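Schema walk-through. Below, the input block comes first and the output block second. Nothing else is stored per chain. Lengths vary across the set, and this one has 105 residues.
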Amino acid sequence: MMRFTAVVALFPGLPESDLHAWVQRGWVRPDGAEPDWVFQDIDIARVRLIRDFRDAMDVRDETIPLVLSLLDQVYALRGQMRAVATAVENQPEAVRSAILAALRV
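--- output ---
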């Protein structure tokens, strides 16, 4: 867990105003209320991602919400697929075989 100033310090060249704006826009969702925001590892990873989008990939600010939304959907689907795979693994062999046969269609 990190506070606002520690997150800014972690990313040289990141203006406090940018991070503040990203939180206000909902791109990064720290715990707590301003000025006592607490950033978890996932928030810090998202800051890194947004910074890479803007600096390394030249993604414009008006496009970032769409990209973040699509990535969130991909991660949610990955979690759902992992849950389905676990459920299938826990089924009897006959059920697993039937599922595999149905997937080969």
